[in-house]
Amino acid sequence: FVAHSNIQQLLSSIWYDGLPGFRRKSIVDKVICIAQVAMLFPLYCLIYMCAPNCRTGQLMRKPFMKFLIHASSYLFFLFILILVSQRADDDFVRIFGTTRMKKELAEQELRQRGQTPSKLELIVVMYVIGFVWEEVQEIFAVGMKSYLRNMWNFIDFLRNSLYVSVMCL
Fold it and tell me: Domain named Ion transport: which ranges (predicted)?
């Protein structure tokens, strides 16, 4: 049943709903379309939060668009984690900063303990809060028993616990 060509065509039409002709595009056009959605994901998310029933908001509910937005967001999160781990914000100040900014950076490096979080670290904190909020919403939506039956939720819980514990440390 599932392997039948008519069923596969139906599943493809459901998956790519909202992007007419996507399957017939050349590989270059597909990559451009995907890159456009990936780069504009913050704008799409903002539109969806402000006006979920507009045309763009309804497009965000389509399976392929949801996948692209979620994947783009998580890749952006991983990119921010890489930047934080390499202290890219300090390097940016060293290269492009004014004399005053470089002096402030040198003073901050003298007192490593007790520093306030950088802007990149605050973005990571916002993402972690979003991850925790997502899991809390899922618990309320499906119930605690059903939530605990899914083993992927244990992985999500462990991931969130590790992020929160690193922030606390």
Answer: 75-168
Domain boundaries, the chain: 1-64, 117-168
CA 164/CA 160 separation, integer angstroms: 6
CB 60 within 8 A of CB 19: no
* pLDDT surpasses 70 at 153: yes
Give the model's pLDDT for residue 114: 61
Q: What are the tokens at 89?
A: 């914000």
Query: Measured in whole angstroms, how far is the alpha carbon of residue 2 from the centre of its chain?
Result: 32
Tell whether the model's pLDDT for residue 130 goes beyond 90: yes
Question: How far apart (Å, rounded) are the C-alpha atoms in residues 97 and 104?
Answer: 10
Q: Answer for the pair 126, 119: CB distance below 8 angstroms, yes or no.
A: no
CA 160 vs CA 66, 94, 134, 135, 151: distances in Å:
22, 33, 11, 9, 15
Residue type, 62: K
Rg of the Cα atoms in the chain: 21
